[in-house]
Amino acid sequence: MSEVLEPQAPAKVEPKGGVVPYLNVDGAIKAAELYVKAFGAEIAAQHPPDDQGRTMHVHLFINGSSVMLSDFYPEHGHGFEKPQAFALTLMVDDIQAWFKRAVAAGCAAAMEPQKMFWGDWYCEVVDPFGVRWSMNQGE
Fold it and tell me: pLDDT tens for residues 62-114?
């Protein structure tokens, strides 16, 4: 009789940054894969999907900081919520390249890169999961 193995948690990875966003999205693994293409993310750790295809935890490194993801788990109090009233801001050194890469990966252009009143370049994209990402390039 073969032994049924439970999914193992990945090795602990220390977060980068002082504030770490933790996003609930509909498809954490797909979001992580998109963020690799759109923002040059590195998947630092990932729990395997459960029997419903949901993933409890994905830890990414994006542009020197951590971002964590999870699918929705309504049975544990984490039901679907549309992302609203926030943006994740990436401080970048080549805003045109970052913007083009994000749009090419599947993000929708919400604001083309432009010089802003505060003197920096700024733009926004919205990913297919509804998360708004802004990019800022100082002068």
Answer: 999 999 999 999 998 888 988 899 999 999 999 999 999 999 999 999 999 99
Q: What are phi and psi of 74, to 5 degrees?
A: -60, -30
Q: What is d(CA 22, CA 39) in angstroms, rounded to the nearest whole number?
A: 16
The Cα–Cα gap between 62 and 92 comes to 11
Task: In whole angstroms, give the CA distance from residue 15 to residue 22.
Answer: 11
State the pTM of this model: 0.89
The matching CATH number, chosen from 3.10.180.10, 3.30.390.10, 3.10.20.590, 3.40.50.720, for 82-139 is 3.10.180.10
Domain 1-81 sits in CATH at: 3.30.720.120
pLDDT tens, position by position, 9-65: 566 889 998 899 999 999 999 999 999 999 999 999 999 999 999 999 999 999 999
